[in-house]
């Protein structure tokens, strides 16, 4: 029974997050300061990735605040995966995090 509840909660979380990502809500809240901070702003990730690809140090200013490993990962993802695929990565990652936190 515990496994069924865990799988059901993960599926519900994935469905909710996917629905929110493909709605108009991200456009609405992306400009709000309360939700878009330097460590979670996708626009800043794209800017940091562009600077990295251009040979400019993204850490020299106040644009990019992620780890160097994330910078390389995002640069590779941006080149190889469509925007639709990137939008699906986040709910999958969050659902996996929820499952791991619930189990441990």
Give a written overview of the molecule.
There is one protein chain. By secondary structure, this protein is mainly alpha-helical. It is 68% helix and 0% strand. The protein has helices at residues 2-21, 25-29, 42-53, 68-80, 83-103. It starts with a helix and ends with a helix. The mean pLDDT is 76.
Concise description?
The chain is mostly helical and 104 residues long. The protein has helices spanning 2-21, 25-29, 42-53, 68-80, 83-103.
Secondary-structure blueprint of this entry?
Elements: H1 2-21, H2 25-29, H3 42-53, H4 68-80, H5 83-103
Helix pairs in contact: 1-5, 3-4
Largest sheet: none
Uncertain segments are none
The coarse silhouette is globular
Strand portion: under 5%
Gyration radius, rounded:
16 Å
Number of helices: 5
Comma- or semicolon-separated keywords:
104 residues; mainly alpha; 5 helices
